[in-house]
Every structure is written in structure tokens, then in C-alpha cells.
Amino acid sequence: MVKISAQHVIKEWELGDWVVRALDDVSLEIREREFLVIKGPSGAGKTTLLNLLGGLDFPTQGEVFFDTVKINAMSEESLAAFRCLNTGFIFQNFNLISSLSAIENVMFPMEMAGFTVKERGSRVHTLLERVNLKDRNEHLPFQLSAGEQQRVAIARALANDPPVIIADEPTANLDQTTAEFIGALFATLKQEGKTIIAATHDEIVASHADRIIYVAEGKITEEKVLREIPQIPSEHALNPPED
Ligand SMILES: Nc1ncnc2c1ncn2[C@@H]1O[C@H](COP(=O)(O)OP(=O)(O)OP(=O)(O)O)[C@@H](O)[C@H]1O
Ligand SMILES: [Mg+2]
Predict the structure, then answer these.
(1) Contact at 8 Å (CB) between 162 and 85?
(2) Does residue 179 form part of some domain?
(3) Could you tell me which of 210, 198, 207 has the C-alpha nearest to residue 154?
(4) pLDDT digit string, tens, across residues 73-126
(5) Which of 63, 78, 199, 239 could form a disulfide with 38 if both were Cys (CB 3.0 to 4.6 A apart)?
(6) Which ligand minimizes its atom distance to the CA of 57?
(7) pLDDT, tens digit, for every residue of 189-214?
(8) pTM, rounded to two decimals
(9) Cα of 3 to ligand 1 centre, how many Å?
(10) Which of 9, 10, 11, 13 to mutate to test the pocket of ligand 1 (most atoms within 8 A of CB)?
(11) Which residues constitute the domain of residue 86?
(12) Number of structural domains found in the chain
């Protein structure tokens, strides 16, 4: 089943009289439970593509579907609510809120998703344990190492148990051990049913991917399938045939 699809997407930025075409007629389908890696040189359009696939930005032309929902036709407000439940973002520079502790950063998206205070309290501990950070709960971002900050950011991305994780160079500033941890965590999340899209140059992370696409000058130039994604039986197939 296709989870996210981009159809003939163009993204242009206007800078005075100058127009930068960051994405140039990109069409792409990402299947449910797929782990897709995006590679390409600086300025190729990787971040722009991730932002459109995750509903952080709108295309200039073309359409983006998440399940059957056309997300580029949504209002900013509905899209924010949609993202909160459906997509967890992980960024290269972590984007943690500097005045909030690890625990508060992870709980932050839960409020919008409607979890009670009690639920938030129990969820946050499980999430921080999952990223091996249970004794760093009260630390502020500046009191954490880069690898620890990124693990808090991953726990935050998982806060509302979204079906899709989008990661933009998640290991770019991190040590080898943390990169290995993140690659292995993505592989486990995929086994648990998540769809993962990551822009990365990290070979450790990319080794867990099902497919790698290469982007250059706003276009997909190459695709490599590393693993076939098992077909999920349709609901139809689960029901016995009627007599
Ligand atoms: N907000 C913006 N305003 C104007 N131009 C932009 C904006 N964001 C991106 N661009 C341009 O779009 C193109 C693609 O940028 P993008 O950030 O998607 O590249 P990238 O592949 O992620 O690069 P990197 O590997 O350096 O992160 C670049 O030429 C960039 O200058
Ligand atoms: Mg980028």
C-alpha cells in the first residue's frame, strides 16, 4: 500500500527577480513500512522534498497525498494538526526547545494530540528509556551532548506514535556509536510498522534502508532497491470468501 505519494511536484523559491527551482517535477511513491533513504549533493533538494512529503511546506505545483488525503490542499491549521498525529520529524540540528528539559521537550507534542497529564507522564518515561536516556530527564538541551540531544529529539518524534518518521541528516553531527544506535533504532521502528524517510549520507543508516533514491538539481536521478518490502495482506484477504 502506498503511504505517501508526490505527483509532479515543483517547488520554487522567489528571491526578487530570481526564481530557484528546488524541486523540478518530482513524482515518488513511498510504501507503508518502507524505509527510504534520500541521497544527493548539497542544494539538490533533499530537505525541500522531505518538508513537502511531511507537510511542513506546500508545493508550488503538483500534489502530495498522505494515505488518501491530499495534504497540499489543507489549510495551515489543519495541516499542523494532521502532522502532529501522523509525522514525527528529526532534524540535523535537533531543534529542541532550549528552555525545556528533556522530559518537557518530549511531552510537548503530546498535549496537542490530547493525551492527559497522567498519560503524558507514563509515555515520556517509556520513550526516554527507549532511546537510553532515562537518567537525563531533567537536563536542559545545553546540558546534553549532541548525541543525547538527538536521542531526545527522536523520543519527541515518537511522542504521538506517528505512522511516519521523517529524518533530515539525523546523524550528520554525531559520533559513530550514536549513528549506529539511530540506524538500528530505525530498523526496529520499521519492523514495528513505521514508514521512515531519511535524507542521509551515513552509510550505517543507509545500510538499513529498503530503497535509496538519488536527487540532483531538484530531480530524482537514480533509484536502488536494497530489499523488497513484504506485501501486507489487504483487509479483504483476511475475510473468508462469502458463499
Ligand atoms: N527558504 C528558501 N528560500 C530560497 N531558496 C531556498 C530555500 N530553501 C531552499 N532553497 C534553495 O533550494 C535548493 C534546495 O535546497 P535544499 O535545502 O532542499 O537542499 P539539500 O539537498 O537539503 O542540501 P543540503 O545537503 O545542503 O542540506 C537550494 O538551491 C536552496 O538554496
Ligand atoms: Mg538539507
Answers:
(1) yes
(2) yes
(3) 198
(4) 999 999 999 999 999 999 999 999 999 999 999 999 998 899 999 999 999 999
(5) 199
(6) 1
(7) 999 999 999 999 999 999 999 999 99
(8) 0.93
(9) 25
(10) 13
(11) 2-230
(12) 1
